Automatic annotation (TrEMBL):
Residues 41-271 form the FAD-binding PCMH-type domain. Its cofactor is FAD. Signal peptide: none annotated. GO terms for biological process: lactate catabolic process. This is FAD-binding and (Fe-S)-binding domain-containing protein. It comes from Streptomyces sp. Y1.
């Protein structure tokens, strides 16, 4: 049972901790992390409770009621309107322990879920029965059913499968006063009458709701706009008798303001056996929207609109996906998906739809049936929420007007007027979204870093609300209102409806305990903005943050909370979160903590903060977030900055002196490797681990009797390079020189076989990574400058390519070297290649030996994030290798991380997710490839005796046998 610290709300925290089985966190770290969601707002809570079961939920709500403390419900925290945060509230995080799929009934086509069930987990549970949950937001890999019910989430395929409210059978509820009930619908008149006769509070509740509806029939019928996407306000029209007084529908979309969801029974639909995709191109988004009504009679599953500026934002953020080659000519595209019982049926439906597209003369069309190409194009669409937080020119774009909706037949005119409104305010944004439902996603570059920025925000939002209302539309078509839009509801609804919203909430939550200020009596839309207030005090910085104008504050505010980092299939990112399940160990959580450090209110110790130090301690500096995060949060860089500042002029952890200075110690060991090996294998080895901050379960490496550089000098003396051979400079990194020289020897053999003159720097070199990753930035700079001098002294032409063998060292030269040394480091960064890149670029036609073996490959995190592995795949194809590349994921060792005391369990847990099971399952004759020294070491120590090879070793072995 967790014990809270001495913090605000300590008495409540003590009581909660005494009776709950789950975690009770009222400390500064959790308050900082849970004070943000995916919105513009910031509301540090009083504390966080992660209930272990429903009894914990009941008890926590009861205690909060007794103390008069508001309760905010949270799933994955991706709410864009601010619904998952609340000032001074207790946040109930359901995702941690209440995320099970309790049952799937294939005959009834229903599933029973807990509030924290992640949508993708429900889809996996339903898939064996050929079923799925219809709504599919782009955050499907991490959004929870509780959050979807709270916001009435939709997704791309609501054209045929509807919104969440169309797919809810029953809701199991806990009211703020402790009452429990289950609601469903639609109901007959007799069923409604029976509900009024129930005893106690439940019967009184039903009586009040039915009387409320009967008194206001005309107002509700006349005052609620009818359109496919209306998630603004309470859905009071679901209470109408002609709609069966559907309480499940009436409570879906109430944003956690009326009741606590304990569980839900949802309807499932058939998963189409086959799909095809029609991509239609148009001159602009207005023309694309105008074309939609004529295409809807063909019953596409989707009619998603993407404008060219979204593609431009995607290209500005990273490399160009190959799938974009399939887009037809145009400046806006509709993604029109068809389905069928067979691939032929899906193709025929798509062909008919493509013919309909061609009837518009300005349209172009492409028909895509390959499932992988479809997946890649949908990945572009799903990444939109993160991509458009940075505009193509690099400016920041914010939510606030991100999902307005109008009748689909009026969408084209609305988009043109919306573009005009943006121009009048000198604002820019990237519109995209669910054109078939008339819903538009749009993030806007509000100038919130200027004194007038808040005024611009308010002025635009008020005029935009008036604009959408004039079209008979909704402020929100998917994300709900929250603080972002609730204040604007009177511009969409008349005063009678606004009054009914307040009455409806009071029937359910008379004490206003649940998420107050989110929808009824809302907080101002321009208050509590998380990025308006500048850091309270300037803090010194050691790194340039070149993509963020030299500002760490802007860098950490890249995180907008879309939470891809907490999804289990998000690439390398974020291994420590996947191991611990703690929000503060996610990329998002760490970004929030650093933002609060700079702000200086919740985190008050600045660079000395123990909360930030603890959260970053389990960051592996894998760089996965720098590539996998849609907005490229670069936590490895932020961690290096923090460690530098945190330990400046102070003693460091033992591991910083042992493994941070590893290149130096290994050079010393190389003078007497035999003695060092004897010590490592004796009882003294345990003392070495203790003094070095190394986990006792780790095996110290065996040191080679001869380093690579000594071997190279002997070889070169006996075998001079042939005259006229093109020189290439091999970077003898610490691992390849002093720990595993066989890798570098193999590289020399291969390169010389291909006719190159392999040279080395004139003296010892090091990329400085061990110092950089431990925050010893001054030493890292000095090491790199000495390395540059050693390269220059080699006397080679300035354009001589440099080949790196270890991906971590190569990535450091490619990316971090210019960051540390500026312009002085760029020439080396630009001519540095991986071993595979060099073979692919400088010897593309050279004959390589055939290696017709089965292989599994573990891609190093830094190669995934910085270098890429396309060249590796091409070289493997030339070898004839039957290779299976493991899904992107960290090996868990990550340089010094997995060796440090206190990290072993996390390191092993990460490795057991993908790497170790795959290696153990590989047939004995299967080659295990891993270019990273860390990956090979983790495999050697934890994979039951399997060993991994570097690509250079594999090719060299083949050469020796031919």
């Amino acid at each position: 049972m967790s014990r809270p610290n001495a913090v605000p709300g300590a008495e409540l925290a003590r009581e909660l901790a005494a009776v709950l089985r789950g975690e009770v966190r009222f400390g500064a770290a959790e308050r900082a992390v849970y004070g943000h969601d995916a919105s513009n707002y910031r509301h540090p809570p009083l504390g966080v409770v992660k209930p272990a079961d429903l009894d914990d939920v009941r008890t926590a709500v009861a205690l909060c009621r007794r103390y008069g403390v508001p309760v905010v419900l949270r799933g994955s925290g991706t709410s864009i309107g601010g619904q998952a945060i609340g000032p001074g509230a207790v946040v109930l995080d359901f995702r941690r322990h209440l995320g099970a799929v309790l049952a799937v009934d294939p005959d009834a086509r229903t599933a029973r879920v807990q509030p924290g069930t992640v949508l993708d987990d429900l889809q996996r549970a339903a898939r064996p029965y050929g079923l799925r949950f219809g709504p599919d937001p782009s955050t499907h890999s991490r959004c929870t059913l509780g959050g979807m019910i709270g916001n009435d989430a939709c997704g791309s395929r609501s054209l045929v499968w509807g919104r969440t409210s169309d797919n809810v059978e029953r809701l199991e509820l806990l009211l703020a006063d402790g009452t429990e009930l289950t609601v469903g619908g639609p109901l007959t008149a007799a069923e409604r009458a029976a509900l009024r006769e129930l005893p106690g509070r439940v019967g009184q509740l039903h009586t009040r709701l039915q009387e409320f509806t009967e008194r206001n029939l005309a107002t509700i019928r006349q005052g609620m706009p009818r359109l496919p996407r209306r998630t603004s306000g309470y859905p009071l029209d679901a209470l109408l008798p002609e709609r069966g007084h559907d309480l499940a529908r009436a409570l879906t979309g109430t944003e956690g303001t009326c009741a606590v969801l304990l569980g839900a029974t949802v309807r499932l639909v058939e998963e189409p056996p086959a799909r095809a995709l029609v991509v239609a191109g148009y001159p602009d988004e207005g023309a694309a929207a105008d074309a939609v009504p004529a295409l809807l009679p063909h019953r596409p599953l989707t009619a998603e609109g993407l404008a060219a500026d979204l593609i431009a934002a995607l290209l500005a953020a990273g490399p160009r996906p190959r799938a974009l080659d399939r887009l037809p000519a145009g400046a806006c595209w509709l993604f029109l998906e068809t389905a069928g019982d067979t691939p032929l049926a899906a193709y025929q439906a798509a062909r008919a739809l493509a013919d309909a597209v061609r009837r518009e003369r300005s349209a172009t069309v492409a028909l895509i049936t390959d499932p992988e190409e479809q997946r890649q194009l949908w990945a572009v669409r799903e990444a939109g929420a993160g991509i458009v937080t940075r505009l193509p020119g690099g400016g920041e774009a914010w939510p606030g007007w991100e999902d307005s909706a109008v009748p689909p037949e009026r969408l084209g005119d609305y988009l043109r007027d919306l573009r005009g409104l943006l121009r009048r305010h000198s604002l820019r944004g990237v519109p995209y979204g669910h054109f078939g439902d008339g819903c538009v996603h749009l993030r806007i570059d509000f100038p919130l870093d200027r004194p007038t920025g808040v005024l611009v925000l308010r002025d635009f939002l008020e005029q935009a609300a008036d604009l959408v209302a004039s079209y008979g539309g909704s402020l929100s078509g998917e994300h709900g209102d929250g603080q972002a839009r609730a204040e604007l509801l009177p511009r969409m609804y008349g005063p009678e409806i606004i009054a009914l919203f307040g009455e409806f909430k009071r029937i359910w939550d008379e004490g206003n305990l649940l998420n107050p200020g989110a929808l009824v009596d809302p907080r101002p839309l321009d208050a509590d903005l998380r990025f308006v207030t500048a850091p309270r005090r300037p803090l010194p910085l050691a790194l340039p943050y070149e993509r963020d104008g030299g500002s760490l504050a802007r860098a950490v505010h890249r995180c907008v909370g879309v939470a891809k980092c907490v999804a289990p299939d998000s690439g390398v990112m974020c291994p420590s979160y996947l191991a611990t399940g703690e929000e503060r160990h996610s990329t998002r959580g760490r970004a929030r903590l650093l933002a609060e450090l700079l702000r200086g209110e919740v985190i008050t110790d600045g660079w000395r903060s123990p909360e930030v130090r603890e959260a970053l301690d389990l960051c592996l500096s894998c760089k996965g977030c720098a590539s996998d995060c849609p907005v490229h949060v670069d936590m490895a860089t932020y961690k290096a900055e923090f460690l530098y500042q945190h330990h400046r002029h102070r003693p460091r952890p033992l591991a910083h002196y042992s493994m941070g200075w590893l290149p130096l110690w290994l050079r010393a060991v190389a003078l007497a490797p035999g003695a060092a090996n004897a010590v490592a294998r004796s009882r003294a080895g345990a003392l070495v681990k203790l003094l070095g901050g190394i986990d006792r379960r780790r095996v110290l490496p065996l040191f080679p009797t001869e380093t690579f550089t000594r071997w190279y000098r002997r070889r070169r003396a006996a075998h001079p390079a042939p005259a006229g051979a093109r020189p290439v400079l091999l970077w003898p990194d610490t691992f390849s020189d002093l720990l595993q020289p066989g890798v570098a020897r193999s590289a020399v053999e291969v390169l010389e076989h291909l006719g190159f003159d392999v040279r080395l720097p004139a003296g010892p070199v090091c990329c400085g990574l061990t110092w950089y990753s431990t925050g010893q930035l001054g030493t890292a700079r000095r090491v790199l400058r000495r390395s540059l001098a050693a390269l220059a002294a080699a006397g080679l032409p300035a354009d001589t390519p440099v080949v790196g063998l270890d991906p971590s060292c190569t990535a450091t030269l490619r990316e971090d070297l210019p960051r540390l040394l500026g312009a002085d480091g760029r020439p080396l960064a630009e001519r540095t290649r991986t071993f595979a890149e060099f073979l692919d670029e400088y010897a593309p036609d050279a004959p390589l030996p055939r290696v017709p073996l089965d292989a599994v490959t573990q891609t190093h995190c830094h190669q995934h994030a910085v270098l890429g592995s396309a060249a590796d795949r091409r070289v493997e194809a030339r070898l004839g290798l039957h290779n299976r590349v493991l899904p992107a994921g960290c090996c868990g060792l990550a340089g010094n991380f997995g060796f440090e005391r206190g990290h072993f369990e996390v390191s092993r847990t990460i490795a057991e997710r993908v790497l170790l099971p795959a290696v153990r399952a590989a047939e004995p004759g299967t080659v295990v490839l891993a270019d990273g020294f860390s990956c090979r070491t983790q495999i050697a120590q934890l994979a039951d005796g399997r060993e991994a090879l570097h690509l250079a070793e594999l090719i060299a072995r083949a050469l020796r046998t031919t």
